[in-house]
Target: Coronin
Amino acid sequence: MSWRSSFRCSKFRHVLGKPATREHSYDGVPITRSVHDNHYCSANPCFIAVVTECAGGGSFLVLPIHHTGRVDPQHPRVCGHRARVLDVKWNPFDDHCVASCSEDCTVKIWDIPVCGVQQNLTKARKTLMGHSRRVALIEWHPTAENLLLSSAYDYKVKDIGLNLHFFALLLSVSFNTDGSRLAVTSKDRRVRVLDPRTGKILQVSSSKSHRANKVLYIGALKMLLSTGSSPWNHRQIVLWDPQDDLSEPLYEEDLDGSAGVLFPFYDPDTHMLYLAGKGDGNIRYYELSSEKPYISFLMEYRSLLPQKGLEPTFAKVLWSKNYGT
Model:
């Protein structure tokens, strides 16, 4: 009989996280107190945008990514919304263009000067007013320039040439790498795959053992990953084959009994998955592959501070409740 080692070779076996020093962090940022399950921050190679708490209307900070240290409490903000800002996303084709959505039922597109925001910015380049209730999610198309998707509490999903009406509120959206498919999760805790050009629903998950909350396309491996909970309220990660009918998952794992929402982040260059829960003090690292067992646990970063929101650049921005990063 030939001997076969059960040892799995991985170049990431000893990966570990290291928090930035105070000099290389953003200190004194008045992060929003909203309880909405969003990231509250967005980063690109030039700037970091952070949703902030303010009295009357909604605003967010735009900070140059290399200008770290303590942030002036009177630092100019982007403050054109009439109600609380719920989400911000940078345009993947323009490092000086950012979109925001708000409880005032609008989506706004902002032009950020090359030198950053030097005075309060109140006039947006474009204001989109197609929703009748607060807008919860926005997402840029990965391959079509200036194409933006929005989802609101009126159960509508809007895009250029597309106007869908869902029977439940969307919790998460994710495009595949070429933008030809859109995966969503909704209040009924199912994963759906849509054709974003026609709005036709192609697949719906039917697993009774998983109630999905967040979904993410794993483009290079042609998989879908969702986080959520089991019928016994254990937090889960689940892998799906989007070419299948989503009747049965490829992989399913219970993690713990915490209540916070798990946010998944995938690095396509290293095939590493990062899982961070809202209110948690830890970040789990996994390595993904196209072969069984598909997911391999690597390491866990632990902190004494609970997380408020995250955004990968890749996964270097971690906002915590002590008003810093």
In short: The CA atoms of residues 264 and 275 lie 5 Å apart.
